[in-house]
Design goal:
Chain A contains 18 helices and 27 strands. Chain A is of the alpha+beta class. In chain A, helix 10 crosses helix 12. Classes of the chains: A alpha+beta, B alpha+beta.
């Protein structure tokens, strides 16, 4: 993935432009999107904001809004420094333009990468408005301040609105070296402002990509080979084309496409498809044998992620090392809005409505798809013919980093030479995801004579696995070795909310409790003793106090886990209530986060509540399973997610901090599964080696 | 076949095959895209509408079967802008991605219309029929409790 930090470099490049040329540039980047509908004057000192002569403030946010609140959080950063009236702020998704750098929303990075540049963008504009205002009032700029979209002359209390200053401000050179506000001066940052995208989510007006409707639009759907890597041999296309309402049925590289007059007719025709596939070699693989088979065939070697002391020597000399194995299965994303993409074709141009986490990547995939059909055209020429529009996303969770639906829709639209919307049925989504990879952990440990962990050996084997979350053990243990064997996966895998932190934190945090119990130690106390990151200690201590950790008995059993990811530090405690000898139920989940300065605390709480629930679904519900090269599950009935009545009470505590912000969309996921497994270990005395975990029945 | 549907208080004529689910008539033909497709098998609840006041999965009923019964979609329901549910839903910032929220609001509205003092079990039974992948459940619970409080306070004053 390209560096996300390029946005900052590009911002500096942009802010060095004069205001007038930036204004021109503004119209050039975006055509009708950014240019005012009428030709009324506006002030647009950089790519992130525009103030019109009515005082309306438009902020251009280049991150995809998939429910995580990023449009609002980033708007707050600009508005804080711009000193605008929040009631007159609106957000538009920024057009795809190099000025914003690589446009991709992932890795819980939005706030972290925008923290400085977006405040600077607002501050520069504020300074220019202050200059314009002081000149207009003929008073020294030092006696003026900006507040609520006005420049105020403090001694006289005279003021002039931003709306009245847009013409004058637009003529000024871009302000330089503008100081940012001090935290004690913040008016917006740190408050629970209502999210800007919410109102239309309550009345049906919000338009997700799947809600795009254009004149004369056809409706397409697709059937891809259920066995990964299989190829098409034959299908009953002629018969399908005879069905009422069906316009076309044809093959593209990814599968068989059906095009109809509406979605229902297309879906029904897809069901009537009779397709013969050449299933290929993946058909021999299943969840139960895939790692063993791939390992036997692979010449890959383990990568060493971490080594200190003499772990192997120390283990070999141990009388009885503590060993364990954990297996984490495939998981799907299940974005509520299924994969879809709409392409408008007109005079050789392609306008694409893509529910994507990365418009930049959507563009490169669209170019590649067109290039496969028009090989004589240069990529640059094709790019000029494509526009990417990014509506609000009906969930993302990492799935929409991938652009397969864009590639397919472009190929279909190119063939039809018509505006077309591609929608995958849910079944296609479940069987053609980029899954959380299947992972096996082997761990060995040894205690010293006082019951403290002395040796830690962690071997990770997985499909397309990643080191993040495993390459820095947060505990002070003398002898450590962490290694990883990555096997090339014939099953598509990809980023699943919190990525490898989910499966790596599970192994670290659950094995820690195994060692603690083997040494007769309280897992919480031992963590507090051995944690090397002070911020993790604070969140854990806070969680322990919140749950009254020491008030445990046979009826109330607690498990805790910690993990640092995406720049934030999280502790979670899961409470289990014993119903009888064999049955437990979930009590409360407590989650404490140190994510640095909290931009919008209510959004942070919402993200952590959601993360806990997302992780609980993976921990408690049946996983995705591969059988004979295909995914066995189809829809929400056989790959269920947590329902309302199954959701425990969740308490979120945010540590007060003035440090730079950390990520928030994902860090709440990794500690949940090990905290739950640790509570089960405490209840039954046995580690949890496999997902899903069971609260009922004999352990 | 030609059908006359009563949607959000208006009589609407559509042409649809007899087996076409109401969901696709609403979305593809009438542009009422607030009703969402997510599972298509009646499991997730994103496509809920009110059929003569009863929450009904629009992917599981044909448009033809709805003739003669008033249909309320989220667009129709939301015209009651001062309804306590919509107020508490916004005040508590319930939605995240928002995709399932039409279904959530339709279900909660039907629940409170029938029973303005639902028990925890009754709320569980109703709301467990609508899935939310973002995990807005804790806030939905709070929003229903608060809306019920507002409705009952109003009733007491009246």
């Amino acid at each position: 993935m390209k560096p996300f930090d390029s946005a900052r470099r590009d911002f500096l490049k942009c802010s060095a432009l004069s205001a007038s040329s930036a204004l021109l540039l503004g119209i050039a980047w975006s055509g009708e999107i950014v240019a005012a509908k009428d030709a009324s004057p506006s002030f647009q000192p950089n790519a992130w904001l525009k103030i019109d002569s009515q005082g309306e403030v438009t902020l251009y946010i280049a991150e995809s809004e998939m429910g995580q609140g990023t449009h609002t959080a980033l708007a707050m950063l600009i508005a804080e420094e711009l000193e605008v009236d929040w009631q007159h702020v609106r957000v538009e998704h920024a057009p795809l333009d190099p000025v914003y750098g690589f446009q991709g929303t992932g890795g819980s990075r939005s706030v972290r990468k925008s923290w400085k540049p977006l405040r600077e963008a607002g501050a520069v504009a504020r300074q220019m408005l202050l200059t314009a205002g002081s000149e207009q009032m003929k008073v020294p700029i030092k006696s003026c301040r900006a507040l609520q979209s006005r420049v105020i002359h403090t001694p006289s209390s005279n003021s002039v609105s931003y709306a009245e200053l847009v013409v004058r401000a637009a003529e000024l050179p871009t302000a330089k070296d503008v100081p940012l506000k001090k935290p004690e001066e913040y008016r917006l940052i740190g408050t629970d402002l209502t999210r800007l995208d919410l109102a239309d989510k309550l009345n049906g007006k919000v338009r997700f990509a799947i809600d795009t409707q254009l004149p004369g639009m056809f409706y397409a759907t697709i059937a891809q080979c259920p066995v990964f890597g299989g190829t098409l041999k034959h299908f009953n296309g002629a018969e399908i084309k005879q069905r009422p309402g069906i316009i076309d049925c044809f093959e593209i590289e990814e599968g068989v496409v059906v095009v109809g007059n509406n979605t229902w007719q297309a879906f029904q025709a897809r069901k009537a498809l009779q397709i013969e596939w050449d299933e290929g070699t993946t058909a021999q693989l299943s969840s139960d044998n895939i790692l063993r088979r791939l390992k036997a065939e692979s010449s890959e070697k383990s990568h060493l992620l971490l080594q200190r002391g003499e772990p192997i020597v120390q283990l070999e000399s141990a009388l009885k090392p503590i060993t364990t194995e954990y297996r984490l299965p495939f998981q799907a994303h299940m974005t509520p809005e299924p994969m879809n993409c709409t392409v408008q074709v007109a005079s050789g141009k392609y306008i694409i409505w893509a529910p994507t986490q990365s418009p930049t990547s959507a563009m490169s995939h669209a170019v590649k798809a067109l290039k496969s059909r028009i090989p004589q055209a240069s990529e640059k020429e094709l790019e000029a013919r494509i526009e990417i529009k990014t509506p609000l996303l009906g969930g993302g969770f990492g799935r929409r980093i991938m652009q397969d639906y864009v590639t397919q829709a472009v190929k279909i639209a190119h063939r039809l030479k018509r505006t077309v919307q591609l929608v995958w049925p849910r079944e296609e989504d479940v069987q053609h995801d980029y899954y959380h990879p299947l992972i096996e952990h082997h761990l060995r440990g040894r205690l010293d004579s006082t019951g403290n962990p002395l040796v830690w050996h962690h071997q990770i084997t997985g499909l397309e696995s990643s080191k993040y979350g495993a390459d820095s053990l947060p505990y002070d243990i003398p002898h450590v070795r962490v290694e990883m064997l990555k096997l090339e996966s014939p099953v598509p895998t990809g980023p699943w909310r919190s990525v490898s932190n989910h499966y790596n934190a599970y192994a670290i945090e659950h094995f820690f409790d195994e060692l603690a119990l083997a040494g007769g130690q309280n897992p919480l106390e031992l963590r507090l003793k051995l944690l090397t990151e002070p911020r993790l200690k604070v969140v854990l201590q806070t969680a322990a106090e919140a749950v009254s950790w020491h008030q445990q008995d046979q009826q109330r059993i607690l498990g805790c886990a910690v993990h640092s990811s995406f720049g934030s530090h999280v502790a979670e405690v899961v409470e289990l209530i014993r119903l009888d000898e064999h049955n437990l139920r979930l009590g409360k989940v407590t989650c404490v986060v140190d994510c640095g300065i909290a931009i919008n605390p209510d959004t942070i709480k919402a993200q952590l509540e959601g993360s806990v629930i997302y992780a609980l679904s993976a921990a408690l519900k049946p996983p995705i399973r591969l059988k004979n090269g295909r995914i066995e599950q189809h829809n929400f009935h056989d790959y269920p997610i947590l329902r309302f009545r199954e959701t425990p009470p969740i308490e979120i505590i945010i540590i007060n901090s003035q440090l730079d912000p950390g990520g928030i969309g994902e860090p709440g996921v990794p500690p949940l599964a090990p905290a739950l497994a640790n509570a089960l270990l405490a209840a039954h005395g046995k580690p949890v080696s496999d997902f899903p975990m069971r609260l009922n029945g004999a352990a | 076949m030609a059908l006359t549907l009563n949607i959000n208080g208006s009589s609407t004529k559509v042409e649809a095959d007899g087996d076409t689910p109401l969901l696709w008539v609403l979305r593809d033909q009438l542009g009422l895209t607030g009703t969402k497709y997510s599972c298509g098998i009646g499991v997730c609840g994103s496509c809920l509408v009110l059929l003569d006041g009863t929450p009904t999965k629009a992917c599981q009923i044909t448009a033809a079967a709805c003739v003669g019964q008033p249909i309320t979609t989220i667009e129709g329901l939301a015209q009651q802008t001062d309804h306590p549910l919509l107020k508490t839903w916004l005040a508590l910032q319930v939605p995240q991605c928002g995709y399932c929220q039409s279904g959530q609001i339709i279900m909660a509205y039907a629940l409170l219309s029938k029973n303005s003092k639902p028990s925890a079990d009754e709320i569980d039974a109703a709301m467990s029929q609508v899935l939310c992948r973002c995990g807005s459940y804790p806030r939905i619970r709070q929003a229903i409790h608060q809306a019920a409080g507002l409705i009952n306070a109003k009733d007491t004053i009246a």
